[in-house]
Specification:
- The chain has 17 helices and no strands.
- The chain is mainly alpha-helical.
- 41% of the residues are buried.
- The two termini are 34 Å apart.
- Helix 3 crosses helix 16.
Amino acid sequence: MVETTAGPIDARDRIETLDVLRGVALLGVFLMNFLGFASPGIMATDAQLDALPTAPVDKWVDWICGWLAHDKANTVFAFLFGLGFWLQLGRAQAKGADFERIYLRRLTVLLVIGVVHFLFLWVWDILHVYALAGFLLFFLRRLPDRWMLGLGVTLALGARTVQEWLVELGVLDPFGWSHDPYVEAEVLARQRLSEAGDWPGLVQAFLRFDVPDYIFNGLLVAWIFYALGRFLIGAWVGRKGWLLDAAAYLPGFRRVLVWTLPAGMALEAAATVGQVLLDDGRLPEGGPWYALIQTTHLIGAPPMACGLVCAVVVGLHGGAARWLRPFRWAGRMALTNYVGQTLFYALVLFGVGPGLALAGRIGSTVVLAIVLAGFAAQVAFSRWWLGRFRYGPLEWVWRALTYGTRPRLRADRVPAV
């Protein structure tokens, strides 16, 4: 008899490699979001950060973290979303379940969570982008392998690259009709709202930030197609089954690692050096140099992310397993931890409620230390929670709204072996 009802997967059905990868990506997303929000033009000015005693070290931390994690962490995250889509499709088909209805409802719930997160908590939310790109992935799910991979690579490499060039050429002018939210006066205005604990004022200020910089310059559309490209590559890998039985494909992962990681790191190193020259004034600001540096970065990030995925897979089946496996706890509660990171940024940078209002008072070195400590706390909390419950808090809400029922939350007590 074929099971015809769909429901949330049990912890025993999870694939550890994917959870570890998701946890590693979460750490990178946490780091780059925190560094970006504490950087000049967002919640700090150049003068404030240059006056910090850690300033000389902060620049190196910025460059190294950007080289290793910027656009690599979100690439892995998006890749795993596409791969997860294919796993859900396979499981639903095996059960004879109504995949289309369930998946579209799942995306709709994610879109609502993302929009609320975007409007009221986190101006750089990615959940609504993933939901919108997920709808496109759904309609492209029957593409042949060659087309799925080709379109995925094209969008992954080209979506934001084209948008960057259109902005530099003046075809898209995000600030032509409005104020520039990156100027010092705007940053200081946001700091004053933060220090006054004015959360509604901050929400309004960041909406003014988003309209020109995110919507009218085409960045939202670029991000949707940027994510879709990574989704398609993930779905294509899901079709191949390589990560479902990674141990059987280890020689292939090693070969891909040798080719992609060095190439990606070299391209990203070139982009990082170019950015250093721009920051130091040795290259003219704006114009073709900036666009060329950004293009090099956006082309180098996907192969480097691919190499990092292969490195984690190889490490999990080698001597690094004991260091990598704890990431799976955070990866199993990815939605809860992602939104929880928003609350962490707010607590440190803003003065709302118990917030510390440290924006402009801490540099990248301190941010790095805070992120490492904060992520360690997330791993510990996730492990504690999952020892008692089957899903993270937001994962449970997402599943309940998707399936129209309340999944059992309390975990089964399994005697230790």
